[in-house]
Amino acid sequence: MVGIAGSTEVGDNVVIAGQAGPVGHIQIGSGSRILARAMVTNDLPPGSLVSGAPAQRHQDALRITAATRRLPELLSTVKELGRRIEELEKNLDSVVRRSGSGATD
What we know:
With 105 residues, this protein is α/β, with parallel strands linked by helices. It has one helix spanning 58-101, and strands at 2-4, 8-10, 15-16, 21-22, 27-28, 33-34, 39-40, 49-51, 56-57.
C-alpha cells in the first residue's frame, strides 16, 4: 500500500476516475474502482466498486436512483388509492344506512 499525503492508504491496482477522490484518513482496498466524481469518506474493502457523493456501492447507488425516479409515479398511485378508499367508505356507509333503516325488531 502507498500512503497519499499521510492520510489515505491506497491498495494495489486501484482505479480512481476523474474528479473523484478520498476524503480523510481512510484505506482503499486493492483492486477497488472509484467511479467519476465519487467522494470516498469511509474505508473500502478490496474489490469495491463505488460511485456518488458520498461514495457507496455502485449497485446501491443505481437502486436509489431508480427508486427516486419512480417517486412521482408512486405518489400518484397512492393518491389514487386514497380516492378509491374514500369512495368505498362512502358506498359502505350508504349500504349500512339502508340495511339499518329497513330492519324491524
